[in-house]
Amino acid sequence: MATALIWLRRDLRLADNPAMIAASQHRHCIPVYVHNPADEGDWAPGAASRWWLHHSLKALSASLDKAGSRLIIRSTHDTLDCLRAIISETGAEALYWNRVYEPALIKRDQTIKLALREDGLAVHSLNAALLREPWEVTRRDGGHYRAFTPFWRALSAMPPIAPEPAPELPAPPPAWPKGQPVESLGLLPGIPWDRHFHDQWRPGEAGANAALETFLESALQGYDDARDRPGQAGTSRLSPHLHWGEISPRQIRAAVTRQQQETVLPDHDVESFLSEVGWREFAHHLLYHFPHMPQDPLDARFRHFPWAADTADALRAWERGRTGIPIVDAGMRELWAIGWMHNRVRMIVGSLLTKNLRIPWQTGEAWFWDTLVDADLASNSMGWQWIQGCGADAAPYFRIFNPVRQGERFDPEGHYVRRWVPELRALPDKYLHSPWSAPEQILREAGVRLGDTYPRPLVDLATSRKDALAAYQDIRS
Length: 477
Hints:
single chain; Rossmann fold; about 50% helix; EC 4.1.99.3; FAD; DNA_photolyase_1_CS_C; deoxyribodipyrimidine photo-lyase activity; FAD binding
């Protein structure tokens, strides 16, 4: 066949891109990105994700130009009509895309595939986002998993699929269809709240590969311990690259395997990191089999949980990093500044919100959705249900993180808190994670005035813990 379209979505890369590899076998291959946030229903990309998407599309466009191709961008309110128009303009006889697994997008893709096949087009969808499809990893009885450990054991036992290099793209078509510039999509913020993003992130395939290389060389060894310490550069920070498909989990697993073969690495570091890739796979497995997961608790008892009333002020303090609990405030300020938060701290701030403050987990989920550059529907909703204790393989509800103990254990020298809560920088380590416990003279010497330069705790941790456990007893009975 002469001309094929590749419809790019969450696969913004050239290497290990099955749809692009297949489309490149045709005489002409036209890469297309169709922008229609309405397709995603209640979960259109948030502000931080839109920032990332803008720069990722710019990077992909440059890569395609260098390869002798071109990215055709169009904005529409009807994706099917838009694709039909491009098909008509180009005479394309085939369309390829890589699957996405959000419920609204699965429904959209099924509708489009059926309609275009009825039009006589050859339509093919492939897997570029996961090690294995959600329906491929099954229990012996054919059912799906609800617990991570047996899921990961089953997935790890399956033969790995080797990643493919970037294809050699065919000659350009006689004429390119019209497109529009990335800037016309209006993805960037109107006010410069993203000013620190540029120092932290390099969206695009090249940035993803550089981040992976840096992690393999400097942080994979010792990962099992360092990953829990927010004051250290101990994690890969590959999550936003994975979400937008600038790198694939197959590429990551293959690179880790090569690194282990070439250097002496402790098995527990490698296994610990790969299991984090596995948690992402498990999240997509759950979302595929439980499409209501973003809004409804998998444990139905929690539909009747007695949430606190009149929480608007508490929620605003949490969002702004003004709770008076240092490691929580550090995490929320990190999130606002760079669009990302260390995973250990995500659990801590989530526990405070849902258990000590008894604010619904869906509220935290929505805030993260808008402010995280790695906002991913599967991982975000699974994570919040895990924190609340209402999801699959979730932490027991009675496991309530004590943010003071967590800070003392995982940020013992205070590097993380001092970076993001500078008004406490002069406090001794002993009092840094609980400034309300410091003698008045110590506070004066550190320039800290509780209730003035830094807020008093929003909630009493011990009392609110008892109230949370009592609320849990209500739904158990």
